[in-house]
Specification:
Elements (H helix, E strand, L loop, with lengths): L3 E3 L4 E3 L2 E2 L2 E4 L18 E7 H4 L9 H13 L2 E7 L2 H4 L3 H9 L3 E3 L5 E5 L4 H20 L6 E6 L13 H15 L2 H8 L15 E2 L9 E2 L8 E5 L5 E2 L5 E10 L6 E9 L6 E6 L7 E10 L6 E9 L2 E12 L18 E5 L8 E5 L5 E5 L1
Parallel strand pairs: 4-5, 5-6, 6-9
Antiparallel strand pairs: 1-4, 2-3, 7-8, 10-11, 12-18, 12-20, 13-18, 14-17, 14-19, 15-16, 15-18, 19-22, 21-22
Helix pairs in contact: 6-7
Length: 374
Amino acid sequence: MVGWLLCAALSVAAGDLSIGFVSHYPLIREQDDLVAQTGANVMTVRAPWAVVEPRPGEFDFGLLDEQLAWAEAQDVKLVLLLEGGPAHAAGVGWLINELRAADQMQADATGAPQPDPSFFSATYREYLQRFIARTAAAVRAHPLGRRVVGYNNGCEYWYPLNRSYGREDRVAFRAAMRARAGDLDALAQRWGATLGSWDEVAPPVVFGRGVNAQPQGWFAPPSEACDLSFADTRATPIRVEPGQRYRFALTVDQPAGPVAELWAQVAWVGARDDQIVGRANGAQATGPGRVEVVVEAEAPVGAERAWLHLKLAGPGAVTIRRASFTDAAGRELAPNPGLDPAAGGWQVTTWSAGEPAAVTTEWAAPGAVALAYA
């Protein structure tokens, strides 16, 4: 049924197994009179801040009236999804205007304002508390309020690190450092830095590698600029056995000048091509000159094949001379380790490069795969 998503079961009361869905009713009306026939006995419905409080201090609970009347007719319980988290608060025009004027929005590392309010904005938190309290009070006073059995946060966990550089965030960071270190001299000693005042204490600038950065994948700029990989193809799968150790090694040349962030990665793939059961990353290469980029790891449970990557993040260039993947017995498993262009078996993938046109590759001779991002 359009507009519904299967939701995790919710426990309304002890011993009562509840089955439910997310419903966008009445913002989306599609076969809503058939809900009871699905067997659902609890529904999660939306209470968007922008609809409930369209102007500061003016509350309109007409949406709630419709939802409760509908729940009564369908004989289901409701959980209200209070859409007031930063991502949804961005749609509350009067709130955002006030927070922008007070410089209490999220910002990126360059200081550019972002569309969501800062978590540390006292103004945002005050208005958010009022929205929640007034909505809950309206439910308690409603004749059909018994239909509401709970509330839920209106937006999933939302704290983008690359937007945590607004004024309020910086103030909060300094307060946290002061609480941890005690005084400025102690913090300077811990950081190995010279700090003349607390105003010089700033959060580190970090960016995630790739579109699905793992916790260990946060690094300094220019990681955000580009994420490419030189990888084997699915046409020549490399079969592995869980619990066995493997070694992926690449010989590469890095020119003088800007050196790209460069490291080897093995993605362990399960029974399905889209099932990544684990990743192993090697240390970042240090150049310029010829270096070996290596990752050694044990195939995890569920791994059926290895997907090999030479990862490049940020502007720079590299020439790949050889790519080897061996098991514990030293047997070569990589397709075309000498990198003969006639044999193939490898490809360049542009993941999150902001300017794909700036990516250049050349593979005209064995052992000479040139990859660069301008």
